[in-house]
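Anyone have tokens for Type IV secretory pathway, VirD4 component? Sequence:
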Amino acid sequence: MALGQRPDYARIARHVINIDELFIDYARVFLTSHDRQAWDNVVRIAGGITEKNTPRNLQGRDSYVVALEQYLSTTRLHDTILDGLRTAVRYDKTYFDKIVASLLPLLGKLTTRKISQLLAPDYGDLNDPRPVFNWQQAIIYVGLDALSDAEIAAAVGNSMFADLVSVAGHIYKHGVMDGLPQTEENPAINLHCDEFSELMGDEFIPLINKGGGAGVEVTAYTQTLSDIEARIGDRAKADQVVGNFNNRIMMRVRESATVELLTKQLPQVDVLSNSISSGVADSADAQGNIGFSSNTQDRMSSIQVPLLEPASLVQLPKGQAFALLEGGQLWKLRIPLPDAAHDPLMPESITHIAHYMEKQYDSTPIWWDRPETVVTAKNDPILWLNDSETTEKQTDDTPDTPPARER
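Reply: yep, here.
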């Protein structure tokens, strides 16, 4: 950022492999801003650097790195970024390469082929045919394909969560109208994370712990509690994650620890038990008129039992669930299952949804009010409207603003 460059995975990979280039570029900008003759002195020193007069810990480094180390040792210039880079290049090059070796396989995956063009596009390329969307007030689908490559999915997902935490912190402090005189209520940001245990990391914890103040509402889907614990590697952090969710909806599960997340939150209830007993006894008086006596007793007792047994969740049919909502109210849910064969509005696939989103989303302020005709699998045209057909459609004579590249 200090060099006026946008940080991305490609630049990070390049500077991890060759940190000398980053150190030289930043030192040139920093020294020139303080003394116009400073860089000329560094160039003069670099011209006299040979292998014999290079310190042992700087063997294999660029001659300008050695010259900068000598020049900075004789001056009193201090800068946080420059000092950090200087500390990194002081390491023996072989030792430094061993430190960063674990990063290279992942960075290599993130900076090759199409994924590099997706994560680190060239924003100045005017020949790039890909459209640039304005994602404000929109639904964004992020497919991370964790089944194919969980490592890349986790890296991209954690980066996305880290960005969301940063944005949520800014909204919490300044609101969405930062710098403008008018005020506006912060809109809700609904985040739905399917199989979120694959994306779990330390970045996700502050998002669910403090993101509510910025309007971030997280709905997470996972299989078991053990998935979260295995991903984070700490039971205390796993309990912290689960404890920050106010509502819990649980379908059929097999793990007892996961079932107890719901059943242990429920109180004990009193159940009345009714028992009937009867008996017959012979009379001891042989001369009397009563030959036997009988009695019948109706007894009612109260016992405490759990409101919901773990076996009730283990045996749930498909499409049914128990939900703990609104501070502890227990609900039994029966969820209608979608049937693509008889639903004319059901898209054919995720690709079909992506094509529709590409046509629908643009940078104009009233994109959501535009009708769109969608052809289903049965070739039946369906008109998608924001309001009912009886609602009068309003027009806007304001000319559309040209699309701008995403910032």
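The chain has three domains: 9-114, 150-267+311-334, 340-407.
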